[in-house]
From TrEMBL:
<dbReference type="GO" id="GO:0016757">
    <property type="term" value="F:glycosyltransferase activity"/>
</dbReference>
<keyword id="KW-0808">Transferase</keyword>
<feature type="domain" description="Glycosyltransferase 2-like">
    <location>
        <begin position="5"/>
        <end position="176"/>
    </location>
</feature>
<dbReference type="InterPro" id="IPR001173">
    <property type="entry name" value="Glyco_trans_2-like"/>
</dbReference>
<protein>
    <recommendedName>
        <fullName>Glycosyltransferase 2-like domain-containing protein</fullName>
    </recommendedName>
</protein>
<keyword id="KW-0328">Glycosyltransferase</keyword>
<comment type="similarity">
    <text>Belongs to the glycosyltransferase 2 family.</text>
</comment>
<dbReference type="InterPro" id="IPR029044">
    <property type="entry name" value="Nucleotide-diphossugar_trans"/>
</dbReference>
<dbReference type="Pfam" id="PF00535">
    <property type="entry name" value="Glycos_transf_2"/>
</dbReference>
Amino acid sequence: MTKVSIIILNYNGCRHTVDCLRSLAKISFVDYEIILYDNGSSDDTAQVVKKTFKHVRIIKIKQNVGYCKGTNDAYRYARGQYVLLLNNDTIVTKDFLTTLVRRMEEDPNNGIVQPKLIFQKTKKLQAGCTFFTNTGFLYYFGHGKDPNEPKYNVPMQMHSVNGACTLVKREVIEKIGLFDEDFFLYFEETDFCHRALLAGYKIWYEPKAVVYHLGGMDNSTYKYSQLVYNATRNRLMSYLKNLEAHSLLKVLPVHLLLNILSLFGFAILGKPENSLAVLKALMYNVSHLRSTWHKRVYVQTQIRRLPDNDFLPEVRRNPRLEYYTMLFNGLERYKD
């Protein structure tokens, strides 16, 4: 069996995809395959890659089916013991994959590992650890900070990865599935990680593995209000599926209150389209309670192996109040 299957999705991103593949050609890890899933592109990415990188397996489809469905489909072609989900607008470093695999193999309960992700342009930290909070909003520890600070260079267990680069044990996917295809945009990786935690796996941040990420490529075609809608909708839907009843009763009232406050806050700031996006996201969850309930029953009866109290304390940190005022604008100013 191949050790690692690297899955890269591409949508009209020829230049970025080629740069990513060039960086992969220089890594020290040798036992891997690359699967490029060309997700309905109209550019010449597939032809360029086929000509330049003959070892890359190309799966080309006619229509863009989105990130979740595309990744799920690409996984069917993977033969690796581990699966690396990698954005096409990343540049990897020589030993990143060797380091991720080493961390994974330190403990049989390790299921998912994320490297230190650094913005290509600013050289600031995009993703260190991501923690759960009592409000339901995530704590992005280190976002926008100096990646050389000692506190961001300590391996830690965490609640969720950043989807730009994630190493997953094949066994995890076989047990819990991959992405929920109802999550068109945002929070799909957090929902996946939450299910992995329920199943008893550990999720790690490994700062010795470094990947540079251009960032924002997938979101550049969407209005901010669309991003607000999807983030709000998916976050709430994920918690309704995955949290135990007693955890949901603690988190849900606070989370709903903060969303309602954000609704009014956007209105006061003269951004009614964002207020409407929050309202639509809340109403979506109300109107889809039946389908979410069916998913919840499956998750709680077929996937869950641990109660929340056995893992949430390990992956939860509650930032100070000012964090939430900076969450949507200026998070880099928050002092961790």
